[in-house]
Design goal:
- There is one protein chain.
- The chain has 7 domains: about 100 residues, 2-Layer Sandwich (Beta-Lactamase), CATH 3.30.450.20; about 110 residues, PAS domain (Beta-Lactamase); about 120 residues, Beta-Lactamase, CATH 3.30.450; about 170 residues, Beta-Lactamase (2-Layer Sandwich); about 100 residues, Beta-Lactamase, CATH 3.30.450; about 170 residues, Heat Shock Protein 90; about 140 residues, 3-Layer(aba) Sandwich (Rossmann fold).
- Helix content is about 45%, strand content about 25%.
- It has 34 helices and 38 strands.
- A hairpin with a 5-residue loop joins strand 25 and strand 26.
- It is elongated and about 195 Å long.
- The N and C termini lie far apart (about 145 Å).
């Protein structure tokens, strides 16, 4: 007993456990000792809920039948499980005891529960099933009738308690009933024997209301039960009959199959639908199956098998079939089993084929079009923060639309022929293991995916593994490609991107190309719109920031409404509140009076003629502040050509004007410092040269006083004096060229002439121990430059060279051409096609590398204190840079130094010709005249010379020896005076004061001022006030006669323009 599999125990009549076997101990988890201290109710809590067990234990008699009941046992861990307990009373020497056997019935209980659930599920399914269900036992008693059965026939289980009652109700005609009973009984026996479902059969059934319905029967049987399913096919039969009628008048393919032999009969239309003659079509099922698309074949076979086995009432399947020429057509195959044998097994089936290719294509196109439109709607509504994010989202939509797995978008630059990656699909990035994947590709290095650009059309590859000469392979770790489609994206006629998708389950086709093209064209318009919106936002923000920072705004005047609009920045410049809208007259009152006429004239020309303007003028703000502003204006024209609005910009340039003035003053001060330094270094040479000149003049003047001089010797002395005077004048002119304080004046220059002038001055002033060499290339092109500044450059370099040769040496000047292409190798900013190269070389002490590297730094000098400012070479560098040129230096200790200067040659000669024409002067054919000239001069020798010259040529001359007298004589004879020639440095009134007073007397008076030097700013103001001409002293008689004749021959207006 102790080793028995079942739990065995016994206890006294009070329930105290006396003994338990190993099965009890193992099942409950208590030790035997623990159990012997327990009551049976401790392990059977359900005992307390039943009747008093202790009473039962006492009334049972030994030898009574055992009592069996279900209970639960509680294990030591607290868990409980069901048991079946059998007890009886036994008598032992110690007394009467209860002997019990307990069996664990957990598995039985679980099985019972599953059965209950299964039965419940069956009933639920039976109640909602679309077919009627009847279950009968082995004695043909009906045990279950579903709700649908009653709905179909009207009979309840009370009407047909047995199968025989069913026969009687459903088939009131006795011969028919007998025949069906025989067939059905045999089918039931066969089903029970084989445990298989019988083939579906169709019968007409009489319903409870007397109506007749066409029913398909299916049945399965077990040893004890038979299950019958009733499908109402009345409506389907009606439709089939109507379809058969329609087939007779429609072009449909007909087929009929003997299901026993597989032989198929088809009509001509069936064959014609696939491009065959009927004689070419094999009369078997294999021909049909061979023509079906491999992807559709399993589904078609499954559908046919389901119908033939009775699972469906009707065969209907859409399938792709291969035509004779290899194309695919969509065919709707409809049919049914039309005959079954006595066992209900299908014998014959018939149906039709309908060509639905166009319908499917239209249907698919509509579906894809709808998907594309939905995708575009999602893309358009996607809250993308950037173009990158928008295109990432669009790429995933394109992948979904084409049924692909992966994809990419590359931007393309047609000019650079370069692809730049924008987006790879997420799946690609998951699978890609390429180390350092490339993001930029050149077109020439791309494989088949670059063909979309090279051929400018979509490229479709449905077998990517196949060999293709256009493929160039993929890097290690690249996602494997099976099928591939890429398209170019156009903006106008320009390719701006390429989009690719890959690894569609089926082949890509023209529909995929069309959908992808339409989608990406629309996406690109969305991208362009977003780019424009982003740019507009950015530009607006930048414009506002720039306007606030640069004090720059805009304005407009609507001429139809006379309405003025100022931007906030314009209002701020005028020190008016934002949003202020002034009247037109108020706008012009802000301008300083002296500028009002100029700005009104420009505005009116814009209004009347549409001529834009750009002026820098002064305004006085609402709070009285005086500002320099730059204002522009342009006309807007409507469709009829009428000017309707003037708009423009307005900028406070006061700070710029002040900075320009300060910079100008600083630059001029630097240049003047350098000029004065150079003049200082030349002083001793200049003094020596002037003394020589004066010695020549004085010596020959003394010779002229000697009475014994012959006419030939007199003329020789006069010629020598003139030559010495010319030499002195040239020296003064060169010094003035170097020292003059004037505005930079860019004009065409022959650098060979500049070099010659410089060398001439240096030869007069440098020690005789220094020799000069020049090598000027013939036909050297002209350059656009300021002569004074180039003189200064050559002088600074020459003075440095002189100091580097204290014991004498050679100073060389060379000028030649240099190709811009060659110069660009050293100076990438050299954009001119050709340059003139000036080389200034000395044979002096040279410089080491450290000195060369710092030679152009301001204030850097190697000379002892007091012998240089350190600004000479810095000035040279600045001047050449301002001329868009370059400076190079080459030097070694004890090997001399060479400076190379490169100045750009204008692209065409027209610039130089125009400049030369402006600077040139026409030479009159005759210098004589009869007009009256007022000469105001305090030097008697000059008065004598000029009066003699003018009167010799026929002119009338009125002389005044101071400024005041000159003005008075002009008042007296202004109607007779045709021209005034005045010196600048006069007693009583200066030449400048004389000019202004004469112009007040006669605003049309023509006045020449002569002087050795006039400040450029003063000269400019005089010209603006109407000065006719400025003449540089000293001058020669023929020069002054030419100028006088030239002015007198011009009209007053022409004289103003030439000034």
């Amino acid at each position: 007993i102790d080793q028995a599999a079942e739990m065995v125990f016994y206890h006294d009549l009070e329930g105290h456990i006396i003994e338990a076997n190993q099965a009890v101990i193992k099942s409950l988890g208590y030790s035997k000792e623990e159990l012997q201290t327990m009551n049976i109710m401790d392990i059977d809590p359900s005992a307390r809920e039943r009747e008093d067990m202790s009473h039962r234990w006492k009334v049972i008699k030994p030898g009574d039948p055992a009592i069996t009941f279900e209970a639960v046992h509680r294990k030591k861990d607290g868990s409980i499980y069901p048991v079946e307990v059998t007890i009886s009373k036994v008598v032992l020497p110690e007394g009467e005891f209860i002997l019990g056997l307990a069996r664990d019935i957990r598995e039985r209980k679980q099985a019972e529960e599953k059965l209950k659930v299964s039965e419940m599920r069956f009933r639920l399914l039976a109640e909602v099933a679309p077919v009627g269900i009847v279950i009968a036992d082995k004695d043909d008693n009906v045990v279950f009738v579903s709700k649908k059965f009653t709905e179909i026939f009207g009979y309840t289980i009370d009407d047909i308690p047995t199968i025989e009652d069913w026969y009687r109700c459903a088939y009131p005609n006795e011969p028919v009933r007998d025949r069906i009973r025989t067939i059905w009984s045999a089918a039931v026996e066969e089903a029970r024997r084989t445990q298989a479902e019988i083939e579906p059969v169709e019968y007409a059934v009489v319903c409870k209301d007397g109506g007749i319905r066409q029913i398909e029967f299916r049945m399965a049987a077990t040893t004890d039960l038979q299950f019958v399913l009733f499908t109402d096919i009345t409506e389907r039969k009606r439709i089939q009959e109507a379809l058969e009628l329609a087939v007779n008048s429609a072009q449909v393919g007909l087929w009929e199959q003997d299901l026993r032999t597989g032989k198929i009969i088809r009509n001509e239309e069936w064959a014609k639908m696939l491009g065959y003659d009927l004689s070419e079509v094999a009369a078997n099922i294999d021909f049909f199956f061979d023509a079906i698309h491999p992807d559709d074949l399993p589904r078609v076979k499954e559908t046919i098998a389901a119908h033939e086995s009775g699972q469906t009432d009707f065969l209907q399947v859409e399938q792709r079939m291969r035509t004779k020429n290899g194309a695919w057509k969509w065919i709707l195959n409809m049919g049914r089993v039309v005959e079954r044998d006595i066992n209900g097994k299908p014998v014959r089936a018939a149906g039709v084929h309908l060509d639905i290719t166009e319908h499917k294509q239209t249907e698919e196109q509509i579906r894809i079009d709808e998907e594309r439109l939905e995708s575009l709607l999602r893309i358009n509504q996607h809250p993308a923060e950037s173009i990158q994010e928008l295109l990432d989202f669009a790429l995933n939509e394109a992948i979904d639309l084409t049924g692909s797995k992966i994809g990419y978008i590359y931007f393309y630059d047609e000019e650079r022929k370069e692809f730049t990656l924008n987006s790879w699909s997420r799946d690609v990035m998951k699978e890609c293991s390429v180390a350092n994947p490339q993001r930029v590709y050149q077109l020439e290095k791309t494989g088949v995916w670059g063909e979309a650009v090279r051929q400018r059309r979509p490229i479709m590859v449905n077998d990517f593994e196949a060999k293709n000469p256009l493929k160039k392979g993929t890097p290690k770790g690249h996602v494997q490609l099976h099928k591939f489609l890429t398209i170019p994206v156009f903006s106008d006629s320009k390719i701006v991107a390429v989009v690719g998708v890959a690894n569609k389950e089926t082949d890509y086709n023209d529909s995929d190309i069309r959908q992808l093209n339409l989608m990406m064209d629309a996406v690109w318009k969305i991208v362009q719109r977003k780019q424009a919106e982003d740019a507009l936002k950015t530009n607006f923000s930048l414009l506002k920031l720039a306007g606030e920072t640069a004090k720059f705004g805009g304005w407009s005047i609507d001429l139809t409404e006379n309405r003025v609009v100022w931007s906030d920045e314009v209002a701020a410049i005028h020190e008016m509140p934002a949003g202020h809208s002034p009247t037109i007259s108020e706008v012009f009152r802000y301008y300083v009076p002296k500028w009002q006429a100029k700005i009104l004239k420009a505005f009116n020309r814009c209004v009347e003629e549409g001529i834009a303007y750009d002026e820098e003028v002064e305004i006085i703000t609402a709070k009285g502040k005086r500002l320099w502003v730059r204002t522009t204006g342009e006309a807007l024209i409507d469709d009829s050509g009428k000017i309707v609005k003037i708009q423009g910009s307005f900028q406070d340039i006061t700070e710029r004007k002040q900075m320009e003035a300060n910079l100008k003053a600083s630059e001029e001060q630097l240049r003047q410092t350098q000029k004065m330094e150079a003049l200082g270094q030349l002083a001793s040479g200049i003094a020596h040269d002037f003394n020589n000149i004066l010695s020549i003049i004085l010596g020959h003047a003394s010779l002229l006083k000697m009475s014994q001089r012959t006419p030939e010797k007199v003329q020789h002395s006069i010629a020598t004096i003139e030559k010495a005077g010319q030499r002195g004048a040239d020296l003064v002119k060169q010094l003035l060229t170097l020292a003059r304080k004037n505005e930079p004046e860019t004009k065409s220059l022959n650098l060979g002439d500049i070099i010659a002038d410089t060398v001439k001055l240096l030869q007069e002033t440098f020690p005789k121990t220094i020799t000069f060499q020049t090598d000027i290339e013939s036909d050297l092109p002209l350059v656009m430059a300021d002569a004074s500044q180039i003189h200064q450059v050559l002088m600074n370099l020459s003075l440095n060279a002189r100091d580097a040769m204290p014991k004498g040496g050679t100073l060389s000047f060379n000028a030649s051409r240099e190709a811009g292409q060659e110069l660009r190798q050293r100076h990438p900013n050299a954009i001119a096609r050709e340059y003139v190269k000036l080389c200034i070389s000395d044979s002096g002490v040279g410089m080491d590398k450290a000195t060369v590297e710092r030679v152009f730094e301001p204030f850097y000098t190697t000379k002892e204190q007091g012998r240089g400012t350190g600004l000479g070479l810095a000035t040279v560098h600045g001047i050449i840079r301002n001329h868009n040129g370059f400076v190079e230096v080459e030097s070694e200790p004890a090997a001399g130094t060479t400076f190379r200067i490169y100045l750009p040659v204008p692209v065409t000669q027209e610039t130089l010709d125009a400049t030369t024409a402006e600077n040139g002067a026409a030479t009159p054919t005759s210098a004589s005249g009869s007009e009256t000239i007022l000469l105001i001069e305090d030097e008697e020798s000059i008065i004598e010379m000029l009066t003699t010259i003018f009167r010799t040529q026929g002119y009338q001359v009125i002389v005044a020896m101071d400024g005041h007298t000159g003005v008075e004589k002009y008042k007296q004879s202004q109607n007779d005076i045709d021209l005034v020639i005045s010196d600048m440095g006069l007693p009583r009134l200066t030449g400048e004061e004389v000019f202004y007073r004469i112009r007040r007397i006669n605003p049309e008076a023509r006045v020449i001022i002569a002087s050795g030097f006039v400040d450029p700013d003063r000269k400019s103001e005089l010209y603006k006030a109407g000065l006719t001409r400025f003449v540089q002293k000293p001058y020669f008689p023929m020069d002054i006669l030419k100028v006088v004749r030239e002015i007198l021959d011009e009209s007053p207006e022409a004289s103003k323009e030439n000034s």
